[in-house]
Amino acid sequence: MSSAGEIRILTTPQELFASAAEELVRLANQAVEARGRFTIALSGGSTPKSLFNLLATNAKSALPWDRMFFFWGDERHVAPTDPDSNYRMANEAMLSKVPVPAGNVFRVEAENPDAAAAAEAYEQTLRKFFQVGADAVPKFDLILLGMGPDGHTASLFPGTAGLGEKSHLVIANWVEKLQTHRLSFTLPLINAARCVAFLVSGTDKAPALKAVLESVASGEQYPSKLVQPKDGKLIWFLDRAAASGLSS
Ligand code: 6PG
User: Fold this and answer.
1) Confidence (pLDDT) at 52
2) Distance, CA of 188 to CA of 219 (rounded, Å)
3) Residue 7 belongs to what H/E stretch?
């Protein structure tokens, strides 16, 4: 397995999501057996919605929902009722349809007009839940990530200050091209996870994916390159369209 991690190329988006759902079910049950709980951070955007639908239907009976604890790897600076809210998407596609206790769902309070305060509050939520002090970094069982056509992941966009964050777990990252802050996990938190899984579908992602997996371009240009779990597993779930630019 290269430093890029394990690359799984599936023919269609449906097969991609079925394969990711299978892996998630395996990891969830393994974590509950080993540690009594499964901690997962969800990605946002449009890609994971099909996975969430699958987990709430076909895979519903195979998951230990009462032992699963949900967080978000990033969130838009909007209220939970906003159409752009990652929480709203996951709640509508999955969480409102499965027997997960409300106390197991930890959304980012992104309605707070003070983005920095919202980030700090979420960091404290993480530290309290994982019972870690100021110098320690919590270890998620699984962090789901997507990748934008520009190579960004979570809300760590090319050339943004958040890429250099070394001490905080969560930041309010100013994204000039979107003229907004985004609340995002930082690289130290992402790279501390037991498993990180990228879901990448569609031809529009092919050029950036090639740059991330096969070029010498910097992580500053393609932040997804900076996702290198320290002692965890990295899996890329790709469909053939997204992988169409890869040489191997
Ligand atoms: C977000 C995400 C972001 C997303 C990519 C891909 O809040 O937008 O977390 O990192 O994963 O932008 O988005 P799509 O899945 O919509 O292509």
Assistant:
1) 98
2) 14
3) strand 6-10
